[in-house]
Amino acid sequence: MVISATKELIVHPPLDEISDLRQPLTKGERTVLELFTRKLPPGWEIYVQPHLNGLRPDFVLLNPKVGIGVFEVKDWDLNAMSYRNDFMQVGGGQTQRPILRASRDGESFDVWPNPVQQLRRYKEEIHQLYCPRLEKKNGFAVITAGLIFPFASRDSAAALMAPHQTREEREKYPAYSPISGREALSDGWLEKVFPESSRQSSRYMTPDHADDLRGWLVEPDFSADQRKPLEMDAQQRSLADTRTEGGYRRIKGPAGSGKSVVLAARAAKLAAEGKSVLIATYNITLWHYLRDLVARASGGPGWSNGITTLNFHEWCRRTCHEAGQGWSEEYSSLFAGVPEKPDNPLLRKEWRRQWQPVLDRILNVDIPDLASRAVGEPSVTRYDAILVDEGQDYRLPWWNALRRALKNGGECVLVADATQDVYGTAGAWTDNAMRGAGFSGGWAQLETSYRLPNDAMDMARFFAQKFLPQETIDLPKPEQGSLALHPCTLRWVQREPETAATDSCVAEILSMLKRSGRDGLANADICLLTDDQRAGAEVVRLLREKNINAVTTFDERGIESKRNKMGFWMGDAQIKATTLHSFKGWESRLLVVHITRAFTADARALIYAGLTRLKRSVQGSHLTVVCTAPELSEFGRQWPEQG
């Protein structure tokens, strides 16, 4: 079949490269692609087997004015092989759960993943993770998730899938979950396959939403700074280009020493060799930063093929889903007894007292243990390489669970900085504790900080020497032989614990706004980092009263907070506001750091992480700390400027 585009459509990969896909198109998929290229109106973009952070649906269609379509194509001949639904009693016999099964050569087997559940998962992840700026409820109205059976009648396919669909999918909103068969394809009837394709526009879809998703489908169009190739010194380059004899490597170094750069460059090199790579983080907000680094290291398009980026708990969830329906249900059951966090602040305080320890146990122990067992199932994705950033945030059992997803002869890299021990987990990474973790050699050590201006580095070193455990600190050293000057402004604003420090934060942000527009600085460079979510949310509210909008991660309602974190720093030209935890790994030239507590080791490690986020520039950078922790008042008096 000759595939050709006859309208103003973008097809990725280009049509003349479709035959080079790692997974060749099936006969049915080629038929569907021809329909899309012939019948879709101008303005649509067609993505064939897009990576989508490792999900790889068959097709994603995108129109910045209309919406999104994600499709699975099943070349099933319902006459040649027997498909059926069996039903299992659940809930004490109160309800029945359908199980899709097939029979061949006298043997029956479960069909997994179930295509309806698979599409539902695509739709949910697009809405929650990859297009986080879509409206929470109405945003689903721009996402179609369709199932196509090129070699079966529509009626027989719909009857087979009906028990697995919700009533809303079958009856209330069938246009957003269409099931089509051979009739629509043979007649060239696009509206039966994709009803929303005839729509001219949607008030819920914008080019910004399209930009958010496009970055997960193909290589994003990065800003000028992000397009620059990664710069590495000789030691960093050696670590990025080589592997150890046993395949396991651990790297430590202080803030700004290039640990993430080495990890990203290694990922790019392995992906270029055709290997599958998992980059694992702890914080969700670190995803985009690492993806940007990998893109810069790759030097060309197609860098994301073969690279999956997940935070640890997202990997656990995906592993349990891939392992099979029983594992997926056991995963969901872990949360069944935990009530949703209430919006009311008073009720939320009681919720934290009663349920936070339970949730911590689920997240830190139960889910990792379940994933560690589920990863042994043959249906779970295995990787040629697993690379872990910010490894000091991991617990040792998490690492051991992750590396079970490694293919035989594969490669593992872990990078860490015990000085930034913000979760109290760095003790797991001593040489004694790491016995049996797969490592045979010592730590590779990076020492030079290429991020911090020297004056800011001196203050960060002073803080670490005064407030952090001396047996674990790893202090940054200045670059030797560099003649470049990186001026910076360091300002400390000390307030009493009970005062409205949020007003001071707003005032300092307004002061920084006056710096933008010169020296290569913009409003979007201003970042508020805080250790108190409620205070951060209040600062955002006060800024909005002054018609100053901020991209923020502050929300305590679970899933919405997750979506906010995924949306953070996605090219939005606004002020940024987030927690010190979520900004780990990032950097900026204009920082306001808000500190409310410094009486625990974790809190002091978090403050150190915040002080090391300042990015150097020959044009200058600026850091202001607004502090209500009395323990730090003496330290603050050492700063050049007082507020």
Automatic annotation (TrEMBL):
<feature type="domain" description="NERD">
    <location>
        <begin position="27"/>
        <end position="136"/>
    </location>
</feature>
<dbReference type="Pfam" id="PF08378">
    <property type="entry name" value="NERD"/>
</dbReference>
<dbReference type="GO" id="GO:0005524">
    <property type="term" value="F:ATP binding"/>
</dbReference>
<dbReference type="InterPro" id="IPR011528">
    <property type="entry name" value="NERD"/>
</dbReference>
<dbReference type="InterPro" id="IPR000212">
    <property type="entry name" value="DNA_helicase_UvrD/REP"/>
</dbReference>
<dbReference type="Pfam" id="PF13245">
    <property type="entry name" value="AAA_19"/>
</dbReference>
<protein>
    <recommendedName>
        <fullName>NERD domain-containing protein</fullName>
    </recommendedName>
</protein>
<dbReference type="InterPro" id="IPR027417">
    <property type="entry name" value="P-loop_NTPase"/>
</dbReference>
<dbReference type="GO" id="GO:0003678">
    <property type="term" value="F:DNA helicase activity"/>
</dbReference>
<dbReference type="GO" id="GO:0003677">
    <property type="term" value="F:DNA binding"/>
</dbReference>
